[in-house]
Amino acid sequence: MKVALFIPCYVDQFYPKAAIATLQLLEKYGCEVTYPKNQTCCGQPMANSGFEHLTGGCDHNFVDNFKGFDYIVAPSGSCVLHIKDHLHDDRFPAEAKKIRDTTYELITFLTDVLKVEKLRASFPHKVGIHQSCHGLRGLKLAQMSELNAPPFSKPVHLLNMVNDIEIIHLERVDECCGFGGTFCVAEEAVSVKMGVDRVADHVLHGAEYITGVDMSCLMHMEGLLNRDKSTVKVIHIAEILNGGVQ
């Protein structure tokens, strides 16, 4: 199984440990992983700002880098959803479609493709799970709380395999943190208030760590936690599943 590792810009620049943990997890389960070195931004920030028509260069570069692999995997639900919903290339339309169909967020790849049922990991901490909006509502990583339907959560399914972890209860299990990509720049006051409320729920219930599938949301909350001089930390779920803090 040949897997291309897609690492979003902000993970590459600010949170390389999440990228390394993703690589190591995939290799542990027998994947032949390649990192295309000429990859750059997928174009999501421009699209979020209303300039999707200017993302052609990003689309072409993505296709040039990622065509020919069995799967493409990334530790970011929002970037994966952008590729799956918006990637197009008039030069190679068939390749672009294949890429859209075979690009996976890490957790979905572990549960749905690799069908992981056992992990060798320990994380003896109280952990709050942040359900990022793109992962929840776009990639269907968990059941939306407003639906009258049987609950499920792919992140929880995997975290329950981790030894010694304690997953805390939250009052609002899938509330937005307020990051929203460029929303946090255009509407910073609203974004901060949403983030303060989201963080408060985790802190109130004793979280030592907040985890999730999108480092962007965790980055937003980390900034708020640091400004409040909180001892609560953020950690990408890949780092926990890969064995915890090294």
UniProtKB/TrEMBL annotation:
Q: Which InterPro entries match?
A: Cys_rich_dom (IPR004017)
Protein name in the entry: (Fe-S)-binding protein
One family name in Pfam for this protein? CCG
Q: Which residues does the UniProt record annotate as the domain Cysteine-rich? A: 3-84, 127-221
